[in-house]
UniProtKB/TrEMBL annotation:
Name of the molecule in the record: Lysozyme
Organism: Novosphingobium beihaiensis
Entry-linked HAMAP family: ENDOLYSIN_T4 (MF_04110)
One Pfam family per UniProt: Phage_lysozyme
Enzyme class per UniProt: hydrolase
Alphabetical list of InterPro entries matching this protein: Bacteriophage_GH24, Endolysin_autolysin, Endolysin_T4_type, Glyco_hydro_24, Lysozyme-like_dom_sf, Lysozyme_dom_sf
Family of this protein: Belongs to the glycosyl hydrolase 24 family.
PANTHER family: LYSOZYME RRRD-RELATED (PTHR38107:SF3), PTHR38107
Reactions accelerated catalytically: Hydrolysis of (1->4)-beta-linkages between N-acetylmuramic acid and N-acetyl-D-glucosamine residues in a peptidoglycan and between N-acetyl-D-glucosamine residues in chitodextrins
SUPFAM superfamilies from the UniProt entry: Lysozyme-like
EC annotation from Swiss-Prot or TrEMBL: 3.2.1.17
Keyword terms, alphabetized: Antimicrobial, Bacteriolytic enzyme, Glycosidase, Host cytoplasm, Hydrolase
GTP-binding listed as a keyword: no
CDD domains (alphabetical): lyz_endolysin_autolysin
Length: 198
């Protein structure tokens, strides 16, 4: 029988962290496949649905439109230092700073590219746990805004099938720099409503 410990130890060192249960299951599946024990089970592919896209775009906006129809980057309104600088549909990253200017097409293309990365992260965090399209969309919106899907208690509760408790967790994520933000409170309420929708 194959000793898996050296493989897991090396991947831990490479990542600089441990694994959650869904990652352990996926690594086990990949190892089984590599040694010919079982076929590799594919991770289900999830895509953001129309309700999730509309919710994210509503809250992110595509603001700071200039007279020429292009868009300026702007500082985070809730942080003390302005970080992260944002442009378009809530896009952030090392390529976005004061003075960054994009066209509408650039804003839309970046959103479409980024949102699948966030959807993939939510899929990984959920592992084999089932999710309705509305639950998935709400979790992607949450993650797109917070980046916290891997560590949030609401994710753990969802994976345990404790959906009513998970739904209540959205309301805890309303702070920026330690201050409650009315906009975050309202966004979390809409995400929670979408999450609980049939």
């Amino acid at each position: 029988m194959l000793d898996r410990k050296p493989i897991f130890d090396e991947v831990r060192r490479m990542l600089g962290r441990g694994f959650d249960d869904s990652e352990v299951a996926r690594l086990d599946s990949a190892i089984d496949h590599a040694v010919g024990a079982t076929p590799l089970t594919a991770q289900p592919e999830h895509r953001l649905g129309p309700a999730g896209k509309a919710l994210i775009r509503k809250w992110e906006g595509c603001g700071k439109c200039r007279a020429d129809g292009r868009f300026d980057a702007y500082p985070d309104p809730g942080s003390t230092d302005g970080a992260p600088w944002t442009i378009g549909w809530g896009s952030t990253g090392p390529d976005i700073a004061k003075g960054t200017v994009w066209t509408q097409a650039e804003c839309d293309a970046r959103f479409d590219r980024d949102i699948q990365r966030y959807a993939d992260a939510v899929s990984r965090a959920l592992g084999d746990a089932p999710a309705t399209q509305n639950q998935f969309d709400a979790l992607v919106s949450f993650h797109y805004n917070t980046g916290a899907i891997a560590k949030a208690t609401l994710t753990k509760l969802h994976c345990q099938g404790r959906y009513a408790e998970a739904q209540k967790e959205f309301g805890k994520w309303i702070y920026n720099d330690g201050k409650p933000m009315p906009g975050l409170r309202d966004r979390r309420a809409e995400e929670a409503e979408l999450y609980g929708r049939e």
